[in-house]
Write a structure and sequence with these properties.
Blueprint: H1 3-15, H2 24-39, H3 46-55, H4 64-86, H5 92-102, E1 109-112, E2 115-118, H6 144-164, H7 168-185, H8 192-206, H9 219-232, H10 236-270
Helix pairs in contact: 1-10, 2-4, 4-5, 4-8, 6-7, 7-8, 7-10, 9-10
Length: 278
Amino acid sequence: MNKQEILDTLEEYKRLGFQEQIDYEKFYLYSIITHSTAIEGSTMTEIENQLLFDEGLSAKGKSIEEQNMNLDLKAAYERSMDMVRKHTPFSIDMLKELSSIVMRRTGTAYSTLGGTFDSSKGDLRLVNVTAGAGGKSYMNHLKVPQRLKDFCEEMNERREQLLKNPDIYEQYQLSFDAHLKLVTIHPWVDGNGRMSRLIMNHIQNEFGLVPSKVLKEDKAEYIEALVESREKDSCLPFQDFMFKEHARNLQQEIDNYKLSMEEEEGEEEQKPRRHFRR
């Protein structure tokens, strides 16, 4: 998908005024949260999350851990929006704070040869981790603090440039790069995927962009794009996937909206007209 096709889709989405609909942003966020946690194994649906978030109703047959995972991610997005409004610069402490919220009720303390740390407090990992059984190892935990510091400096420099000289396409590129780079560093023992998607949306929200989401149905393609980018040491494969995913999701909403408008017009035409005698 080329740059102009993406910009055209975004322009049509904006023209139709989705974000002006009542509670649209709230339900869009609920969808982002539901798909993000689903990628990590949650089976909560958007309706179940809506009832949990708005009315405090527990989902029947769903574990407490699943529900807490979704509640914590919602709280992390709310804290992220507070930071966005203040244009809080990236820092290790800022990332650790968000991670502590993401993992508040599902994190745990670890005691390792490298020391003791607690994922529910946003502590950086003090142990090496791999990408699943038989997968490649992420970077040595001793390298994480410096790499995370470098990451924050890069994000701040690029954010400032794009806040001064906005370019929608480049702003999305930055958000996708942040997603890839953070999950590649893998700073925490758990919650890296949720955090990376949160930081992607954090940057998009700061720029006033339509936030992107990764659908649970596209999990395999998403992981393949992450792996390809890491193996090629290039952001391009992941950027390409995310631009396609975002445009595809927005186009689906556009198509659904147009279909509902056509159905509504059809219903109006079928209504019997009243004839009045003079």
